[in-house]
Amino acid sequence: MSLDLTPSPGAAPLRRQVFSQAxxxxxxxxxxxxxxxxAVVIPLLVLIxxxxxxxxxxxxxxxxxxxxxxxxxxxxxxxxxAFTSLAIATGxxxxxxxxxxxxxxxxxxxxxxxxxxLALLVVEGLQVVVxxxxxxxxxxxxxxxxxxDVAPPAALAMLLGTAAFASLGLFVAGVLRAExxxxxxxxxxxxxxxxxxxxxxxxxxxxFGQVAEWLPSGALGxxxxxxxxxxxxxxxxxxxxxxxTAVGTVLTATTFSWE
Length: 259
Prior knowledge:
The protein is an all-alpha fold. The protein is built from 10 helices and no strands. The longest helix has about 30 residues, at about 65-95. The radius of gyration is 20 Å and the shape is globular.
């Protein structure tokens, strides 16, 4: 008499494992009050406050404030999720041994990274919806080139920006303790938001703008403005983001500790 083991024990297919991990990561991110503050509340406050304050601070822009600020706030949203949120979450996962315990599960390391990437893209998609709706209510008028011409360069900029900031966020989380990661990620976020040419154009920073364009924040902001204002692909900004992605990936690969 043979023993019936149906259903056969064993690990689920990798695709299902990755989707389950991504679903869990996205849920944890959206349920965390601090993550929601970074992902949605701060970008919306910057958008609304920036539109109201541009005339009062005498900022000289080439287009209407809402048309300039919306691409920058979308870039800021990418930075908040792909860098700050990812770094803080990963830092505390290392501290509490979550990643170490996942190492004992059937989910391989590259599956864990794929799950984190998918979760980032899901959260960024929700951020885009919220910010675009808010900007539309504020009379945002993107490039007249048409959605089919604007969407590809904007999507490519967001993907490269996500890759650059995620690699740098994992590097920070891999070399610092959780508390230090929390402080460093928030500090870098605030500095780049204020002086990194992500929300407003690099030309508004005077001489420092030539430096800011080479920062990942400046490159992402310029790429988003080129896509959503002019309907164009900013090749130099894309190359800068690729270079930061390569730097961040090498640094993470050589320093990241899973425990």
